[in-house]
Hints:
5% of the residues lie in helices and 59% in strands. By secondary structure, the protein is mainly β.
Amino acid sequence: xxxxxxxxxxxxxxxxxxxxxxxxxxxxxxxxxxxxxxxxxxxxxxxxxxxxxxxxxxxxxxxxxxxxxxxxxxxxxxxxxx
Length: 82
């Protein structure tokens, strides 16, 4: 298995709502890109990480392609907390 990282964001939590979290995103792949904003469903996070989500919390969002040993390529998305 191998990961081809396509995009990496540093995300800062703006607000945690009932079913999602609003974040400010800084593009680490291309820092000249403007700041972006997103709402991410809490169900996309590992259950142990949801408790880390609070205003001002920082995490990284890694996006890429994962190539399985069989050659199959699937979308890769991972949240990593600081």
